[in-house]
Each structure stands twice: as C-alpha cells, then as structure tokens.
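User: Once you have settled down, look closely at the record that follows, taking as long as you need, and be ready to discuss the fold:
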Amino acid sequence: MPRTAAAAILTATLALVPALAQTPAQTPTPATAARTWTTAHRDDLIHQFSDFLAIPDVAATPDGLHRNADFLLDQLHQRNIDARLLEIPNAPAIVYAHIDTPGAQHTIVFYAHYDGQPVTPSEWDILTPFTPTLRTINGEQRIYARGAGDDKAAIFAQLTAIDALRAANIPLHANIRFVWEGEEEAGSPHLEQILTANADLIHGDVWLICDGPVDQSGAQTVVFGARGDTHLAITLYGPHHGLHSGHYGNWAPNPAMMLAQLLAGMKDENGHVLIPHFYDGIVPLSPIEQAALARAPVNDPMLRDAFWLGRTENAPAHLLSLINQPSLNINGISSGATGAHAANVIPPTATADIDLRLVVGIDWHDQQRRVIDYVRSRGYFIVDQEPTQQTLTEHPRVAMIVRDPASYNAVRTPMDLPIAKEVIAAAQSTVTERASAAENASTVNSATGQVVLLPTMGGSVPLGAMERAAHTRTITVPIANYDDNQHAANENLRLQNLWDGAETMAALLTMQ
C-alpha cells in the first residue's frame, strides 16, 4: 500500500470521533463529568491517592502486596462493585472486579498493576519512598512516591472515573472487568496461570492496558503493542579468590577485564548489535503503522537536553523508530569494588545482567540462544550452574549463563481493527474536549491536539499471556508523565496527568 494511502486510512481512523455537539446540553460527556468531579474533590482525591501510595508495594514486602490487594478490594466493595481476589499459592493476588451491564454486547477489560519496583531509600529526596510528598515543579504539582506513576495512578484514575460517571448518572454500555496484577514488576511469572484458571471471568473483546507513560510531548497516547523482554546473567571466572594485583597481575586472568572485552564485542560504537542473527525474523511494520510513526512527534532534541546527552545511539534514527527494533542493554556489572572499598586485587568473578528487548517476530528463546552462541564463539565453555574446580581447571575460559524463565515475546495489535478505531475515538474525544474547555494551554496535557498513535511502546508488558488466556486483543492507553522516574528514585506523577487520566478512563469506560 502506498504511504499516502496508509496516511489516508489513518486520518480516516482519527476522524471517527463522536460529535460532541450532538450531546444534549443537560447531559455531560464522560470527560466533562470526570473533570467536574476531580475539580470539586481535588483535595480529597489527593488524600485518597496518598493513602494508596503509602502502602509498600515491592516484592520484598509480601505483606505490603497483601495490604495493597485488600485496600483495592475494599475500595471496590465500597462502590458496590462485585470484586474478589484471584489467587494461587506463593504468588501475589490479582484483584478482579466486574460490572455487568444489562443488554451489553461487548466486554472491556481494564488492566493495571499495583506492585512497584524495589527501592533504595537513601537515593530518594523525600522522607521514604512510601511517604507521599507533594511538590511544585515548574508551576505544576507532582506527587512523589514509589508507584505514583508506575502504576497506581491508572488504578486510581479508573476508580475516580467510576465515581464521576455515577455522580453524573452516565450509564455504561459494555460489561466492564478490572484485572489489577501484583507482580508485573517481577516479570508476571504467574499471570498466565492465574488468568487461564479463571478464563471464564477475564475474557473480553479488548484488554485496555493502562500502564506506562504518554508520549514525551505530553500528548495522550494510544499504543498497539509492547516489546518482549528476557534476561541473561553472565558470570566469568578468574582465580578461586582475590589475588594481589602486584604479585599476580599480568599472569592471573582478570574476569572483570575479560567481561569488559566480551561485552564490548556485542555492539559497535554506534549501538548496532553485532551478535550474529540478532535482527533476524523481525516482522516489519505495516504501511498504516509506518504512517502513524511518520505523524508522531519527534522529541529527540528535547530529550537529549533533558537527559544531558551529547549523542544518541544509532543516529540519525530517532527514538520512536528505534523502539521498533530489538535491543541489548547491560543492566549492571559487578566485580571487585570501587572507591573507598577498592582493593589491589584481581577479583575472582565478574557478572553482567543483560536485558534483551524483543519485537514481533523474534522469540525470546532464540534471542537468548544467539547471545549464548556468541559467548561460546569467543572461546568460553558454557555452564548453567556454579562450575566445579575440575571444570575451571580443564577450560581456559568458563562462563556461567543463567537464563531468566520469566520472559515473553512482543505483541502488536493492528491499528485498523474496529475495536482499535473505537479506542482511538474515545481517547481523541477527551483530547478534543479538553483543548476546547481549557482556559490556557498550560492546563492541556497535549502538545498537538491529536492522540499520538504508536505501533509499539518501549517498555515491556506480558501482552502475550493476556491474549492467550483471554482470547482477546490488547491496546495500551497510558496516562503517566514521561518524566515520572519510573523504576528509579524519586518516582513521581504530575497531578494534571491524574486528572486527565480520569477523563480518559471515563471515556473508555463508556464505550459501546
């Protein structure tokens, strides 16, 4: 299909927005109802959101995860919504709820997660990561706490939207399901098992994935896929114990140096991965997906300044193009010690955690194997558990490679499906109405007035597990600000994103 034709299809898709002028004057739109509600109850909502954020939500605190699930169950029951916990042994519960609508022809499932990444309290600028703190940054209020942006905001926006719709007597048209997970940040190892065991409860015409940040421009975003994800831990070996670097340097192999050399050979200086067959199998973007990328904002210059970057990898390709390619990242390297703890020794081991992001067409097993084959080609004997003395002395180079089984492939939903067009229209209606109602541009969380449509998001969500278990399609509608420091210290949420998110959720909840 010619690019111009694809662009025309995309333009036609965007045009499928309900005519707001046809709405009776006395009946508010869902977005208006949500805006009225959040404006009237702002202080109370901030207090309620803070109570939610104050509950620890990392895997290291399983009691905290239980408390989060119980809190959400109570919130749903207070709203007279039928809710329960979907559980299996030794796994955080999924909070499940449903609202059945008489005569409904369709079912919409809203997914989000209540767990968060681990925290190092000393790195945070607030009292603790679970002491929600309000700050004004560049004239805008933000709330700081673990989970503020990733991903408790989406859950709270959904609850707020329900309250707003009920207060305005706006009916739902579809059956609604909520699936709120408690181990997404741990790779969702039990998600598919739990969903499959409850397949009769969680099936829907579409799963709306309410996770991740909006486009860096600030515009409301709808994303039709996510990268897959897998990890490898590579450990190389030197002497049995640390050796004096003066007595044994230039003689005993240094595993830290060996690891640096091994890793350096995996990518060239511009960021292109050199591992054989690393890019094999990629399913190319369709013409309509290519047209969507061509319309999307190019935020690279702004991001380079924001992140203090003097260059970017794979230039001149821009960020949105590159997230549709597989990637290889070093999450961390450990060997010996630095700074005040440094000692003049040859360390016994060196370890690197490798993060592989995947795109449609590349299987995570294959990508792991390609990396392992590369390490083997560099002369390493591969083991998957701690090597014995005999193994270490019989082989000049030994690498222990541990594969992460909590891995999953990339998924992408076609943009031109009927349900995709409905989601685009619902999201666009909120952006259009928000822009027309705003008194000044600073209150509008959109740089263009148009929803940004992306084939793939850079982050990873186990969409494949959801689609297999629920026999459905997935579309992502995020609400968090891009600079929310997710997964890092000082995670935060721009409060305007929360209020805008409630409007977006209200529009999605009332789809046909």
Notes: The two ends are 31 Å apart (CA to CA). The mean pLDDT is 92.
